[in-house]
Structure formats: C-alpha cells, structure tokens
Amino acid sequence: MPVTLAEAKLNATDDVDVNVIDEFQKSSDILNRMTFDDVVSPTGGDTLTYGYRRLITQVSADFRAINSEYTPTEVTTQRYTVDLKPLGGSFQVDRVVAKLGPAASGVVALNMSQKIKAARAKFADAVINGDTAVDANGFDGLSKILTGTSTEYLPLANGVSAGYVDWTTVNDKATAMAAMTHIDSWLASLDETPDVIYGNRKTLALFKRLAMWTEQYEKSEDAFGRPITRYNGIDLVDLKTKAGSNTDVIGLVTRDADGGGAGGNITNLGDLYAVRFGMDGFHGASIVGDLVQTWLPDFARAGAVKTGEVEMGPLAVVLKATKAAGVFRNVKSA
After folding, report:
1. 8 Å CB contact between 87 and 102
2. What 3-state class would DSSP assign to 125?
3. Which end of the chain is more exposed for a tag (fewer CB within 10 A), N or C?
4. Is pLDDT at 18 greater than 80 in this prediction?
5. Which residues pair with 310 in a beta bridge?
6. 0.85 cut: is pTM over it?
7. DSSP sequence for 38-87
8. Which residue from 273, 253, 110, 122 is spatially nearest to 187, judged by alpha carbons?
C-alpha cells in the first residue's frame, strides 16, 4: 500500500517517532511530496529488491476508415530493479553528559535533530546525484537515470552552439522571453506538467528573474507557512546543501559544454530538474512496516556510553516513466 510520511506519522505510537517523522516531512521538500510503495518484504535473503517496468514510449490513437483495421502500436517498456538500502545514522552519549542542561537543548535532543538533518540532506543528495557505481550502499539518482533520455535537455542539441545558456546577461524582457523558450521546450518534453523544478540558489535566482521579466512569476506559502515561488504554477525549490558540508546538492560545475568544440571548459554551470511525483511517475519504494524508526539511548542499563539511532527505510527511488522527470543541463549561473 503506498504511503507518505504524513500517513506514516499516523501509525507511529511513540512520541519520539512522531516528532522525527514530522521533522523529516517539514524539512525536506522531496520527502514531503514523495509517496513510498511499501511492498517489498524480506524473504530470508540480505537483498531487498523492488522490480518494475519503466514506460519508455507512449502509444497514439488514430481514426480508421470503414472496413479497414487500425495499425497496431504498442507501448515500449523496460524492466528495472532497484535494491532498497537503509539510511540514517547513530550517535553516542555519556550518561553523565546526558544529564546536563535543560531537556530541550540536551545533548540527546541535539544529536537526534542533527542526525535527522543529515539524513534528509543525504536523501536529497542521493535522489539527484546517487550512483551505485560510486556508492554501492545507495541507489541511482535522477542525474544518472535521465542521462541520454529524451527529457535530458542539452542546449548544444537545441540550437545553442556554445553548448550552454547564459542567464547572467539577461537584462530585459526580450532576452528573457528568448531564454524562456528553452525552458518551455524542455518542459514540453515531459508527459505532464511537473510538480516542482529543483535547482541551486544561484540558478533559481536567475530563473526567478527571467520569470519576473516574462510575467510568469508567482509567490505564496506552503502548508508549513514557508514562502514558495512558482513559474507557471510549478514550484521552484532549492535543495540546499549536502549532508555534513556547505556544498550544494545541485552544485555549479565546470564542463566542456560544446563537446570538444572551440569553447573549452565553462565554469559555473548549473542544472535544473523537473519532477512529477506519483505512483505512475517518480516515487519511493520501501519495505512493509515502519518507514522511519528511532532508538534512544537506554540509560536504564549498565554502561557509561549509550548509542542512539535514526533510520529511514530500507528505501530507494523509482522513475516509472522516463518522461515524468527531466533535466536541463548547462545554465551559466555565475
């Protein structure tokens, strides 16, 4: 049965678990939107595998003449599997230190909140940058999944000989409109309007400026009272930084954008990711049971140093339809 973090919170019986799930939900745009298909059940082995078929192409429909047959066409799918992995962390606290300070700012609460913060940042990083060839304990993210697909928008393949679009020089409505034609062409390659466009703060700041120039910028608040901006009704969200660092999840990179042409390496190139969440689009996969679990240090037992843990999953992400997500590469952002 597919579940969201909001629904998982209703099943939690421990006050700590409820607070942890709520913290995951409020603090991560991806987790707040994502539905998890909790159908994987351990069967005695140590590998938890979720298998599915990804829709590669769509079918069309036509009129037919009387006394003639339709020309048969079928959808194209491809079988994929993903292994679910647990995500979280642990910390240790001396029983003497745990008694110091008020409960709200105690060392256990502090470490628990920081582990939650690190876990949600790691999950966001994996959703975008995950690569099992680099980290076998994780899963493949959207950057790898979308490489070479029809929804990977490369300026070089769309009439831009330099291989990148430069939004830093846009300073009037005419150039903003020209820049937005690439965004609209990219979004048109998706099967439906996406729920969100993810990027880093610099690329999104330029995106918002273009949207203002073209009068397609909106601003409101989400369910938690946080300000949110939109382009044509699509949320624009900064995924912020990776766990344990100040490096952006969707960072600015240096690339040879024109593929070996005269331009050479171009610095400060950013990518944008458009995602449609749903069980027929982009969603999570998890095991049957609790999606988030916590273990508080047990100071009632003997031993000076105790361990606490926070864990999500085991889980992974699934892209059921290639056109449910897309990436716009090589936006000059600084």
Report:
1. no
2. helix
3. N
4. no
5. 89, 294
6. no
7. EEE---SSS--EEEEEEEEE--------TT-PPPP---EEEEEEEE-EEE
8. 273
Going along the chain from its start, the domains and CATH numbers come out as 2-59+76-142+280-319 (3.30.2400.10), 152-277+322-332 (3.30.1930)
| 3-state SS, residue 204 | helix
- Tell me the residue length of the chain: 334
User: Residue 219 and residue 227: Cα distance in Å, rounded?
Assistant: 7
Q: Please, what sign has the CA dihedral across residues 188, 190, 196, 201? A: negative
Distances (CA, A) of 116 to 17, 144, 168, 310: 11, 26, 36, 7
Tokens linked to 19: 């607070």
Q: What is the DSSP string of 217-281?
A: EEEEE-TTS-EEEEETTEEEEE--B-TTSS-BTT--EEE-TTSSSTT--EEEEEEEEEE-BSTTS
* 204 burial via Cβ count (<10 Å: 0-12, 13-18, 19+): buried
DSSP state of 322: G
pLDDT tens for residues 278-308? 988 999 888 877 778 888 888 878 888 888 8
The whole-angstrom separation of Cα 153 and Cα 216 is: 21
Is there a contact between 163 and 155 (Cβ–Cβ < 8 Å)?
yes
CA angle 142, 143, 148 (to 5 degrees): 105
| CB neighbour class for 197 (10 Å; exposed up to 12, middle 13-18, buried from 19) | buried
- Are 88 and 310 spatial neighbours (Cβ–Cβ below 8 Å)? yes
Sign of the C-alpha dihedral, residues 146, 317, 82, 251? positive
Q: Please identify which residue in the block is written with the tokens 């070479």.
A: 148
